[in-house]
Amino acid sequence: MEPRAESPGRAKDEERARATILNVNDTPAVLYLTSRILTVAGYHVVEATSGTEALRLAGGRPDMVLLDVHLPDIDGYEVCRRLRAREETRDLLIAHLSAVSVSREDRLRGLAQGADAYWTTPLEDDELLANVEALLRLQSRAQAAVHARDEFMSIAAHELRTPLTALRLNLERLVHHLTRVPGDMVARRTVEASTTPALRQLVRLQQLLDTLLDVSRVGSRKLRLDIEVFDLAEAAREVAGRLAMSARAAGTELSLALPLGPALLMGDRLRLEQVISNLLANAFRYGDSKPIWLTVEEHPDALWLSVTDQGIGIAKQDQARIFNRFERASSTGRADGLGLGLFIAREIVIAHGGTLSVESEPGQGATFHVTLPRHRTAAY
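Now predict its structure.
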């Protein structure tokens, strides 16, 4: 391989070095020149001089195929069609590169056969590299989207399986009692022992589905806000009351620091209660069973809300990541939750024209700060 040329940044060099390009051309001079340009830029290049050889080498799954249209045995259009017809090569990145077939009809035919791009030569070296890099970026984004989808499916399946299993077991227990007791006389206590947990699991399922629906709405900017004037301090107090049992289950004490009078805000009360609930749930999960504070402060043009815990804390390099989809505040491998609470909370706050940030050090707990303008009427 030729020495790598200087590039704008080390990250780009490393990205190029990881990419393998199959260069297919039967003209020796063009094949050599194109391969050299790519190799000097840092790509790993594999060469083929015929359609048959290209089909064989494509089975090695290169990151990209540069495919000449005119080949001695099978033309590039047919090679592209066959690659798209094969299960193992149908998603390869393919770009036609031709110095002869340069008409509009040629380009349309190439794209119709499945090529991702159709470039005609001559191209300057930097123009060729820019086109290659652009296609590889698009491929990288598509792969990232597929990875995010697969991760989402895995996490969602795990989270949904737990309440579904508990629901099934409780209903099976009830059916078991019904079949063992003669007549219609089943003790009320027996029925309640199975149906009450089943109802809790149904509520949990509804919450999970609502969370997934919120993610869909946020992604398509269809999160609807019902704007009204309400007391944020009162809303915080009500959320804390609803989550008192969760606080006890986490072995923590939840303390409130709220204004004496109403802290009036123009916003969507239910959505902002969801923000408070998500922040508290996060604190219960990672607060190490130590006291937690929920605070609301009044300022002339904005209200400040914060949730503070004394738990495991968050490293600096993770403080931006945790607000992304499917991310968690901890890297300890715990798989509870969909990793969507902070993402949804931030999107709701942004929809209100506010900000959500975190201040933390590892081992010293974390404080999540919410700033909300008092007046907000614009739709999301």
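The first strand starts at residue 20 and ends at 24.
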